[in-house]
Structures are given as structure tokens and as C-alpha cells.
Amino acid sequence: MRERARRLGADLDRPHTVVVARVEERCRARALAAATHLAATKGGLAGTHDGAVVLCLPDVDAGTAASAVRRELGSAGAGTVTVGGAGPARGPSAVAPAHAEAARCVATLVALGRSGEAASAEELGFFGLLVGDGRDVRGFVQATLAPVLEYDAKRGTDLAGTLQAFFDAGSSPARAAETLRLHVNTVTQRLDRVSRLLGKEWSSPERALEVQLALRLHRLTGTSAV
């Protein structure tokens, strides 16, 4: 593999970012042509695998590479392009694991309702592990937070933001109040309202983890109340 890459002008012993781009099937040939041109100008490699366009680009961080690929393929008329990047990968044996991570990153973006965007595995963090296999992210957010989201939407309040500040403050109403620049009694009243909406067990360790995850996914997806 190292020798085949060398013949194509690429040195796999340099650190490479692996980029996976999901495009519509009708646009795949155009996307591959644009990817091949980009790889040639950067001293990298391009091809297709499992219906996606894949690039190995040297000496560039994953987030920058993913954004550049999305921009280049989009400008070439490749339609909706969703891109994930991972790495750096150094040496032929590191390419496959980085490819798997980049592919999971793309699947995560799609699951989050963010088709047409680009991100690195580092930017998505552990959400790639949680939602990259086609899970119903929006359904989970709704099942966990719907009463709070509906209350906020109808009354113009921000119970969800108060909850996030509460968790960010280590579950301390006093510290959350400082962050929000509110009186601690106001925060306590809002949390009491949350208890009436979600049930008193929302702050138990198991439920609190679910609520925190749903809040983070809500921010990533922009999920609104139904």
C-alpha cells in the first residue's frame, strides 16, 4: 500500500487526515473528479469506498480538511455533501481505523439532521459513538425533554437553558444562579417547575444523565417541541 501510494505521489508515512464525503449517487462521478483534483494538488489520495468519496490529505487537521472537501465538492456541483474527517493517521495501518472514525462522523451528522455539513470526529466527540449508527436522535430528545421544550415554546421561558446551567454548575442552584445572573430563588423555582414537568426523578443519577445527553443533543440538532 505504501508503494502504491508513492507511485501516486503520496507519502503515507506523513500524517494524513482521512475524509469521508457522502454525496447523492447521481453526483458521485462529479464529486470523485473534484476530490481527485483536490488530492492531486495536496499530495494526497482520493477514491470511492462503500458508496462514499474518500480522501487522504497530508499535513492538515481533520476539521479544516472536512470543511475544505465539503466546499470543493459543493462548488463542483456535487449536490448535498456531508463530510466527516478523522486523524491524523500515520502509516498504512492507521488509515483503516481513521476511515472508520470519519465514516462514523458522517453517520452522526446525518443522524443529527445536519446533512450538508462538515465536522471532525474531535468536534463531535463522544456523540459519534452514541448516535452514529442511525439511532432516532430527535425521538430521544422529544421523549426526554418534550414537556420542558413545549413549556418554553408556549411561554417564552428558558427552562432548558436553566437546566443546562444547573448541570454545568455541578448541580448547584447557587452557582447556576451566578452564571445566569439570577437570584438563586428564581433558579430554584424554575427547577421546581422542571420537576412538575418531568417528574421528581429527573435529577436522580440515571435520569440526570439522560436529561443532560438530551440537552446536548437538543443544542446540536436544534430540535424544537412538537
TrEMBL record:
Q: By what name is this protein known?
A: Helix-turn-helix domain-containing protein
The lineage's top-level taxon is Bacteria
Q: Where does the PucR C-terminal helix-turn-helix domain lie?
A: 159-217
For the CdaR GGDEF-like domain, which residue ranges apply? 2-106
Q: Which residues form the signal peptide?
A: none
User: Which PANTHER family does this UniProt record tie to the protein?
Assistant: CARBOHYDRATE DIACID REGULATOR, DNA-BINDING TRANSCRIPTIONAL ACTIVATOR ADER
Protein family according to the UniProt entry:
Belongs to the CdaR family.
Pfam families recorded: GGDEF_2 (PF17853), HTH_30 (PF13556)
Could you tell me which species this protein originates from? Answer: Blastococcus brunescens
Coiled-coil-forming residues are: none
InterPro entries in UniProt: CdaR-like_regulators, CdaR_GGDEF, PucR_C-HTH_dom, PucR_C-HTH_sf
